[in-house]
Amino acid sequence: MNHHNPSSAAKAPAPSVSHPIDSDASGTTGAAPATLFGDLRDRFAFLKGFLGSPNGVASMVPSSHWLEQRVVRAAGLAQARCVIELGPGTGGTTRALLRAMPAQGRLLAIELNPGFHEHVRKVVRDPRLHVELGSAEDIGAFLAARRLPAADAVISGIPFSTMPFEVGDRIAQAVAQHLAPGGRFVAYQWAAAVAERTTPYLGAPHVQFEALNIPPMRVYTWTKAAA
Length: 227
Ligand SMILES: C[S@@+](CC[C@H](N)C(=O)[O-])C[C@H]1O[C@@H](n2cnc3c(N)ncnc32)[C@H](O)[C@@H]1O
Prior knowledge:
By secondary structure, the protein is α/β, with parallel strands linked by helices.
């Protein structure tokens, strides 16, 4: 897909599903928390990703454990069949989501940065997880390619404030379209841009604040109206 914008079209290929994950001895198994070595490796990879694309990543460090837990609670994943993560980064949030999901759930993680995409595929190995390279604008194409149902929850850490207005608008539209009735959209952001893009499609969000993160974050939650 070609959206003619600098944030996604230049980097994101047309949606196509990734190959099965290779075995890699350096990866953690499934949703297990990272080891000390894994944590340092992830932080180094995250900083490298930030230095390569400051606006696309928008943070020098991954989300804190406290923020991960607040996001997981807001998403309500205990019964989720299909969950989508936008911008898994180096996979810390991905592991936290997998730990909260049921055994039969599926997690579709969409990452724009090729280095992060490859990193998550290597270090987070879980049969419930599908990690795809591309833009969050293309949620619908990735769901269709994997034959996944509408999402019970969409979780986003992508920086709406540094992307062009039209890109953020398309992502908000795609999230609203591909959420199941009663499904939740949880977005953690410092800036309010995500709320400005999403409120036209999903109404006013519930807002929480997590101080124990660098930087502190607002956690916005929308619930799509039941059909
Ligand atoms: C602040 S980081 C969050 C990473 C991780 N989820 C965390 O909380 O530690 C934002 C992530 O969104 C990704 N991203 C930015 N724009 C995107 C887009 N249009 N589609 C998918 N991912 C995107 C970045 O590459 C980066 O991995």
